[in-house]
Amino acid sequence: MTNFKYALLRLMRNKANLFWILVFPIVLGCFFKIAFSNITASESFHTIPVAVVEGDNADATAFHTMIEQLSGDSEDAMLSATFCDDKKARTLLEKGKVDGIFYTTDTVELAVNSDLSDASINQSILQSLLTQYYLNRDLIVQILTTNQGNIESLVDSIGQSVDTRKEVSLTRNNIDTYDQYFYNLIAMACLYTAMGGINLAINNSANLSSLAARKTIAPAKRAALIGTELLAIILFESLLNMVSFLFIVTVLGIHMTTHLGLALLTILISTTFSITFGMFLGCVGPKSEGGKTGLMFAVVMPLCFLSGLMMGTMRMVVEKYAPFVNRINPAALISDSFYALNNYDTLTRYTGNILTLLLMTALFLIISILVTRRKTYASL
Predict the structure, then answer these.
(1) Which of 36, 202, 205, 308 is 20 to 30 Å from the Cα of 42, by its Cα?
(2) Which domains does the chain have, with CATH numbers?
(3) Closest among 198, 188, 208 to 294, alpha carbons compared
(4) pLDDT at 75 over 70
């Protein structure tokens, strides 16, 4: 227990460790939240303001009915129509208060302001509405002149084509495109705990650390010393990652999972993997601590890049051309575990990812133990 306590104290005093595992993910998460909130707001659909100048003809009556059906006070309304005269409509268009003017004085026509580049998408939607109106009108006229018995079924079919806009989700929750960046952020934070494994390897290598030299001649069993220190690192750094995760979920309001217990278990397993991976690097990597840490960053950052941390579509590109990489990339496995927990009804995909992480954890741990046991030091 004494070794466990001192291991925890060393971890608490390691400022670099605290920064990369706790502070950096929280700060980066805040930047993600601010950036993606602005992007989401700009991409969301807004009701299209339009002016309508009406005449006294059959087209005007029919078009008025269609505009009223597409307008309303709700946020889901497609149009916000202003019925007015030509002078007021042109003033509204010039000031950018409306994106277009529908004229029904003779035939139905659309006028837009080509200088309003920001409204180009809305102008295209208005043009599509006008085209759809003419198609339906011509179809009705054709059937009226050829077969009047099908008028009722025609009206029903036209109503269905306009009203049956149904959104179907193939997963349990509505997927936010930008959530994957937060999945990858947690994966990166978990992988950064490899620094704890590197420190563990250094603190138990007598040729690299004076503390390890004293441990070598201590009466306590070496396996017990390494085991208690490993347990302290796993518990402490898992706790740091869980704090980062809970901050993102509760403070930033990111929907990361519907299974909180399994999400925390994922963090524990991912942290354990990363620490054993760090032990492996500490045993076989460069001799200096700086060299080992540099090697860790040189490995972790490309793994995070391939999983989609820097570019969201990268993981799909890898899946298309080299799917095997996603099956062994720990960053991809961790982020995909959170994705599966949040969006799938079954745990099949999640279980596969976790089993792969556990197998890799066992592999790195076994290699690290074998390398450590083979090391011998010359007596002076």
Answers:
(1) 308
(2) 2-39+178-374 (no CATH), 46-163 (3.40.190)
(3) 198
(4) no
3-state secondary structure of 290: helix
Amino acid at 109: E
In angstroms, the CA 243 to CA 353 distance is: 23
Residue 134 reports pLDDT greater than 90 = no
Residue-averaged pLDDT of the chain:
82
Helix (H) or strand (E) holding 30: helix 24-43
Radius of gyration of the chain (CA): 31
- Both structure tokens of 126: 């208005």
Distance CA(341)–CA(240), nearest Å, equals 21
Residue 366's pLDDT band (cuts 50, 70, 90): very high
Q: What is the enclosing helix (H) or strand (E) of 52? A: strand 48-54
Give the model confidence (pLDDT) of 205-219 as tens digits: 756 666 655 665 555
CA–CA separation, 259 and 257 (whole Å): 5
Report the C-alpha gap between 306 and 326 in whole angstroms: 8
DSSP designation for 178: T
The single-letter code of the amino acid at 376 is T
Q: Which two tokens stand for residue 43?
A: 């991409």
What whole-number distance in Å separates Cα of residue 54 and Cα of residue 83? 7
3-state secondary structure at position 71: strand
Please list, in sequence order, all residues whose beta carbon lies within 8 angstroms of the beta carbon of residue 274, skipping any fewer than 6 positions away: 190, 191, 192, 193, 194, 197, 330
* pLDDT given at position 116: 63
- Asked whether 51 and 87 are in contact (CB, 8 A), the reply is no
Q: Mind giving me the DSSP string for 212-280? A: HHHHHHSSS-HHHHHHHHHHHHHHHHHHHHHHHHHIIIIIS-----S-HHHHHHHHHHHHHHHHHHHHH
Evaluate whether 354 touches 266 at the Cβ level (below 8 Å): yes
Helix-then-strand count for the chain, H and E: 17, 4
Under the phi-then-psi rule, with left for phi > 0, alpha for psi from -120 to 50, and beta for the rest, what region is 72? left
Q: Tell me how far apart the alpha carbons of residues 75 and 45 are, in angstroms, rounded to a whole number.
A: 10
Query: In which band, very low, low, confident or very high, does the pLDDT at 163 lie, cut at 50, 70 and 90?
Result: very low
- Asked if pLDDT for residue 320 goes beyond 60, the answer is yes
104 in helix, strand or coil?
Answer: strand
pTM, two decimal places: 0.69
